[in-house]
Amino acid sequence: xxxxxxxxxxxxxxxxxxxxxxxxxxxxxxxxxxxxxxxxxxxxxxxxxxxxxxxxxxxxxxxxxxxxxxxxxxxxxxxxxxxxxxxxxxxxxxxxxxxxxxxxxxxxxxxxxxxxxxxxxxxxxxxxxxxxxxxxxxxxxxxxxxxxxxxxxxxxxxxxxxxxxxxxxxxxxxxxxxxxxxxxxxxxxxxxxxxxxxxxxxxxxxxxxxxxxxxxxxxxxxxxxxxxxxxxxxxxxxxxxxxxxxxxxxxxxxxxxxxxxxxxxxxxxxxxxxxxxxxxxxxxxxxxxxxxxxxxxxxxxxxxxxxxxxxxxxxxxxxxxxxxxxxxxxxxxxxxxxxxxxxxxxxxxxxxxxxxxxxxxxxxxxxxxxxxxxxxxxxxxxxxxxxxxxxxxxxxxxxxxxxxxxxxxxxxxxxxxxxxxxxxxxxxxxxxxxxxxxxxxxxxxxxxxxxxxxxxxxxxxxxxxxxxxxxxxxxxxxxxxxxxxxxxxxxxxxxxxxxxxxxxxxxxxxxxxxxxxxxxxxxxxxxxxxxxxxxxxxxxxxxxxxxxxxxxxxxxxxxxxxxxxxxxxxxxxxxxxxxxxxxxxxxxxxxxxxxxxxxxxxxxxxxxxxxxxxxxxxxxxxxxxxxxxxxxxxxxxxxxxxxxxxxxxxxxxxxxxxxxx
Length: 661
What we know:
alpha+beta; Beta-Lactamase; five-stranded antiparallel beta sheet; 17 helices; about 20% strand; rod-shaped; disordered C terminus
């Protein structure tokens, strides 16, 4: 711009100067011609040719740029001239223009010539014509010198201006380039940039401040007026830009404040550091939120409860692991779906109706639902609550469904236990009341058997005795069930007690072709308990197995000591028909039996159940039996496989610390 403007101005001025010189030359030639015409009036009147020649020669000799001068009369007759080689007649016809158009530029062998023509007059009478040829070479040479001088001057000024402009622009563009590079660094994610220049003196040096706790002390990237909480007396706790009213009068501001670019760069640095600090805070918050979110998600995934979140449109936004596992779906296949996509049509209608009511009223819902799944009764305690945002608006629903099937079973068992306890008290009271008259009846019948000789009456008395003993057995079972019988605590060898019971019954069982196979483990510790009560348990289990088998079969008895669980396990398996699935949950109930009428009272297993409970253990029944409770002899191969197994577990918290070698 400087070159073009400078050259344009130089050319314009040179053209104006050239025009001025040419105009000055024309005026000078016209003045010479007019003066000569005035002086030639008298010689023409007197026809003094010598004086005419002298005047014309004087002008020609006096001015070097005068090429020729000649005088003609009104009839174009040449009176005098300065040509040395004869007069060129063509020159007479070269200037026929009016006086106002003088001079005329002619092209000659000596270059461009201005031809001036002035009439010689005396008053209104024309006496002749004076013609003067003024060379333009001198003017052109002077114009060229002026053009050259102007060009050199213009180029010098322009060059100096360019140098100054480059220096200024370099200073300006360097700072702008530094600011631009800082912007590029920030765009690339690098906020540790400094667009502004370091200062010669910082605020703590200017103010001779020793407040190390001041935020500005030691900060070489930001000016103190950009920082909040500085300890200068006039700053206070105001932030930028509200503190600038006080800072403008501060000597630090007056010393360090630069121009607009410096101010922009420093403000940019302050902005970059502020953004960096803000991003670091956001990053830390994001990490904290992510950690809390992960922790919350872990908790929600670890809990066995079925947890879900739904938005206002009842679309699922979260599903816990238990919920996904229960419906055999992945979370990605649940999120974004509705109840209609997951549940049956009937259940989805119920869920949507309940959810819309909660969204409308804001009241939570708690209920228990029951349904069958895989032939098993399932119970869930369902809680639905609205989820609110910070403004108190409902933004969704939270559902928690807890599987309370086991709790329901425990409730049923608790109710059943309470019934059995009440029934036990009743049975105990009835047994005590019946036991005395039965004893009297049995005693008198036995006395009468000894005295009666009549065979028919004697047979009747023996029937009375037999049935009375049966009644006493029932009363004994009732007393055992009611736990009113006396329990003796003594050291018990489980294997020995089992062997004694097996020897007691194996002969009678063999009559029905029932074989007892026992596999009693080594190293079984002694147990503190009631040996006779435990024998009664083994006897009840063996009799129950024999009753199920009937004719021809095997009974497998196994005892095992588990060191890891510190427990004794006795299993009694039989090759009978097994136990129906609907009866497994009731076989330990009192008076429950699947035997024919007159074949059993239904108290044997319930009495055994009570005895094992008194010893702190538990008794279980499985049909078909799992392999872990079967003797190794069966697992190695047998022609007859068990149909059911009864498992007795006795804890060793009361074991005498003695192992049998």
